[in-house]
From TrEMBL:
GO biological process entries: cell wall organization; isoprenoid biosynthetic process; teichoic acid biosynthetic process
Organism: Parvibacter caecicola
EC number: 2.7.7.40
Site-annotated residues for Transition state stabilizer: R14, K22
Protein name: Ribitol-5-phosphate cytidylyltransferase
Length: 234
């Protein structure tokens, strides 16, 4: 079985409104979160779409989804996220386990709530890669030169960008393997490993690359909203 975990724990600080998480800002006539959830519901690939958000926003999230996409609410479960990204992912896995859904073949596709332009090809490629390898990351080739500075003052290195990629989401995994890896992290590792794929790499486990798309943008700043409005209009 395949399950989606939409990570909706972001804040609105960089949007200029710390009291309103960015996933609840509108693009067109719907909140960003609704656009994202709909992509996974209409794909036809998932038994359940989990939406993980701060505890204080759980009921409001349920109300929004009931209002904007009532035809999908039976497929959606809104649950509380964790204090960190990996903690939030673990909450999704615990929900699946508690409901008898986390078997050996379960695939969990994790995705940022504020990437509403993910397409069906990316979702299907993630599922295929996770089934084959156990873990995958969606990426696009780096187009700009990447400069490394260890002290924030002077250049330490300029890696060859032909070997560099920019990470997007989804990131997808065999659910049981993902739970095993995340639960194996020490407190020190949990403090620095905020990315599930990085945790797999640390354990020496393979992570397959899936080709992303330049349109799969993450809406973080006010100018991103304007770009998203234009993309939606097109």
């Amino acid at each position: 079985m395949h399950y989606a975990a939409i990570l909706a724990g972001g804040s609105g600080v960089r949007m200029g409104n710390p009291d309103k998480p960015k996933q609840f800002f509108f693009v067109g006539e719907k909140p960003i979160l609704v656009h994202t959830v709909e992509k996974f519901c209409v794909s036809g690939s998932f038994e359940k779409v989990l939406v993980l958000c701060p505890a204080t926003w759980v009921q409001q999230t349920r109300d929004l989804l009931q209002r904007f996409c009532p035809e999908f609410v039976s497929q959606i479960a809104v649950i509380q996220g964790g204090e960190t990204r990996n903690g939030t992912i673990l909450n999704s896995l615990k929900y699946l386990e508690q409901n008898g859904l986390l078997d050996d073949d379960a695939i969990v596709v994790t995705h940022d709530a504020v990437r509403p332009f993910v397409n069906l090809r990316i979702i299907e490629d993630n599922i295929a890669a996770a089934l084959k390898t156990g873990a995958c990351d969606t990426v696009v080739p780096a187009t700009d030169t990447i400069v490394e500075s260890l002290d924030g003052d002077a250049i330490s290195a300029i890696p060859d960008r032909h070997f560099l990629y920019q990470g997007q989401t989804p990131q997808s995994f065999n659910g049981r393997k993902l739970k095993e890896v995340l639960e194996s992290l020490s407190d020190e590792e949990k403090a620095v490993l905020t990315d599930a794929c990085k945790a797999f790499v640390l354990r020496g486990l393979p992570v397959q690359l899936v080709r992303g798309d330049a349109s799969n943008i993450k809406i973080t700043y006010p100018q991103d909203l304007r770009v998203a409005e234009t993309m939606l209009g097109e």
